[in-house]
Every structure is written in C-alpha cells, then in structure tokens.
Write a structure and sequence with these properties.
The chain is built from 6 helices and 9 strands. With about 230 residues, the chain is of the alpha/beta class. A 7-stranded mixed β-sheet has the order 3-2-1-6-7-8-9, with helices on both faces. Strands 4-5 form a two-stranded antiparallel ribbon. Helix 4 packs antiparallel against helix 6 (about 215-225). The longest helix is centred in the C-terminal third of the chain and has 26 residues, at about 170-195.
Length: about 230
C-alpha cells in the first residue's frame, strides 16, 4: 500500500509494515522522519507546484500521485491524517481501493462529523460541543471509509466507539481516539489481507436524531471558529 499523510503519521505508523511508499504534501510533516526510521521511501509533493493558468490544478497533482503509485506498484492507499482533498483522477484510478481514517463519527449520506474543517483539534471539539448540548448519552468514534470525491462521504468500512469522559478536552479526547484508530486500522487491513477485498458496513440507526440538526451545526461552527486550521 501507499500511505498518504500530512502530519505526524502516528496512526499510519501501525501500517508501515505493509507500506511501499509514504506520500506527503507537507515538507515539514513528522511522517517523513517516521518513514525514514523504517526505511520506507517518502515522496514530498506540494500542491503549489502543480498549477495551470496560475491556479492549483487537482488534475495535474493527481497525475503526479498516480505516477508515484505506478512506480511503486501500489494496489491500495491508506489516508492517515491526509489533510487535502484527493484528486478525482486518483480516486478513479484506484476506485474502491482508497481508505481514509477519520477520528470522529461518520454517517455517509446523513448529518455527521465530517466535511470541510473537520480535522485536527476542531473535530474533537465539535464532538465535545455536541455531546454537552444534547439531552442523551453520546459516544464518539473512529471510522474508516472508502474515499470518494467529497470529504468523508464514502461508504463505511468500520467504526469503533470511544467514550467521552467528564472533563475531556480536545487534546485528551484526541489521545484516546488515536489509540483506538491505530487498532482499527490494523484490524481492517488484516481482514483485507485475508479476504482480498474491503467489506462495507451499515449503521443500524442514525447518528444525529431529529431536532439535533442545528445543535450539530452550532457545535461544528464553534469548533472551526476556535481551530480554523484544524
């Protein structure tokens, strides 16, 4: 597999034994040092270097990513802390073979904790805001899903509950979620090795209940305002 990461690579590291290459869009990303420690090639490709008519070209960037994946004979792609939208031509070339790890509950096709701005500490604060405003018990989750052309909208592959504790901060919740994320990544990719395919799962019920829609939007909006860069 190839691992796409924009940050430290802490959750992707558990998959390094399966990786033939790491790709990052961030020349200062901690994942570069992690990959070097494991003797895994790391390719740095910044979006600003792929422009057409003076603007970033997702198509050109995607062509370069595809070239890298072909060079390393990549079959599957794991996105672990990949902070940018994967180009459509990459998604088409690796249809149903790109997996994204998301550190919050997702419910594709319905309201959830995905989308623009839901990364970094912002997504954890959104979950905490929501849990404190609603009138029922609520757990957060880590989720794995197939990658499509919209942020966090692909079919679910797995979701693992994580308790929210009294007094949790975005930082403390993040630490527990990351541990669950690592275990979930290992489990799903181990199943792939055994079966040769990615099996989707369905939720038995909706994440957001009727009457909670505005609460969710408020929780996400306030979190993004506090952590505009994630």
């Amino acid at each position: 597999m190839a691992i796409l990461a924009s940050g430290s690579g802490t959750t992707g590291e558990v998959l390094f034994d399966k990786a033939v290459v790491v790709v990052t869009n961030n020349p200062d990303a901690g994942v570069i040092k992690r990959a070097k420690k494991y003797d895994i090639p790391c390719e740095v490709r910044m979006r600003k270097d792929y422009q057409e008519n003076g603007k970033y070209s997702p198509s050109l960037y995607g062509e370069e990513l595809i070239r890298i994946f072909k060079e390393y004979n990549v079959n599957f792609i794991s996105q672990n802390g990949w902070a940018i939208l994967t180009p459509a031509n990459v998604i088409a070339a690796f249809s149903d073979r790109i997996v994204n790890s998301h550190p919050a509950p997702l419910d594709p096709g319905h309201l959830d904790f995905g989308g623009v701005g839901m990364h970094g500490l912002a997504v954890y604060l959104a979950v905490l805001n929501f849990a404190r405003l609603i009138k029922r018990p609520f757990q957060t989750e880590v989720t794995l899903h197939k990658v499509v052309e919209e942020y966090d909208k692909g079919s679910l592959l797995a979701y693992t509950p994580v308790d929210i504790l009294s007094g949790d901060s975005p930082e403390s919740l993040q630490e527990r979620v990351k541990e669950a994320e690592k275990k979930q990544n290992v489990s799903v990719w181990k199943k792939l090795e055994q079966t040769g395919k990615l099996v989707t799962v369905e939720r038995p019920s909706r994440l957001i209940l009727p009457g909670e829609e505005e609460i969710l939007e408020q929780a996400k909006r306030q979190a993004i305002e506090q952590y505009p860069k994630g």
